[in-house]
Amino acid sequence: RISKCVAEKNSICYTYGTSKKIVQQRRVQIQKQLQEIHNTIQLFEKEILLKLEQHTDCFLEMKILLSNINTFVHEHQKKSRDEFEYKRQVLILDGTDHRLIHTFFNFKPNKSQITSARRIWRTTTQQISLEEQVEIMEHRLASVSLSTTISLFDRMLDDIDNKLIKSLTILGGAK
Predict the structure, then answer these.
(1) Which has the closest alpha carbon to 44: 74, 69, 70?
(2) CB-count burial class (<10 Å; 0-12, 13-18, 19+) for 12
(3) What is the secondary structure of 34-51 as a DSSP string?
(4) What distance in Å separates the CA atoms of residue 71 and residue 20, rounded to the nearest whole number?
(5) Is the pTM above the cut of 0.85?
(6) Residue 58 neighbours by CB under 8 Å, 6+ apart
(7) Where exactly are the structural domains of the chain?
(8) pLDDT tens-digit readout, 109-160
(9) Could you tell me the end-to-end alpha-carbon distance of the chain, in angstroms, rounded to an integer?
C-alpha cells in the first residue's frame, strides 16, 4: 500500500478520500430532492382526494400515479447506476495507478528517473484535464449554438493547444 504522502507527490491524490464539504453538500442536495418529492406526492394526493370527491372511480388516477412512480424510479436508478459505474471505474484506475507507482519505486530509480517520471505523470494529468475541458466545451457548444460561443470555444481550444504544446516541449527538453 502506498502512503498518502507518496500519492500526493506523484499526483494521484485527486481522489484519495472524499472531502467532508463535498459529502455535506451532497447530503443537503439529497435532502432538498427528498423534500421536493415529498411535496409533489402530497400535492398529487390532494388532487386525487379532490377528484375522488367528484368521482367515485379513481382507477385512472391510480394508473397515472403508478406510471409516474415507475418513471421516476427508473430515471433515478439509471442516474445512480451511471454514477456507481463511473466511481467504480475511477476506483479501478486509482488502484492501477497505485500499483504501477509501487512497482516503479520497487525498481529503485535514481533521482533523475524519478524527476522524469513525475514530469511525465504531471503532463499526462494536465493532458487528461485539458481533454476533459474540451469535452465539456463541446457539450456546451452542442447545447447552446451561438456564434459568440463558437469564437470563445475556438479561443479556448487554441489556449489548450498552446498549453499542451508548451508542456510537451518542457517534457521533451527534460529528456
Answers:
(1) 69
(2) buried
(3) HHHHHHHHHHHHHHHHHH
(4) 33
(5) no
(6) 48, 51, 52
(7) 1-108, 110-175
(8) 999 998 998 899 889 888 888 888 888 888 777 766 555 556 666 777 777 7
(9) 30
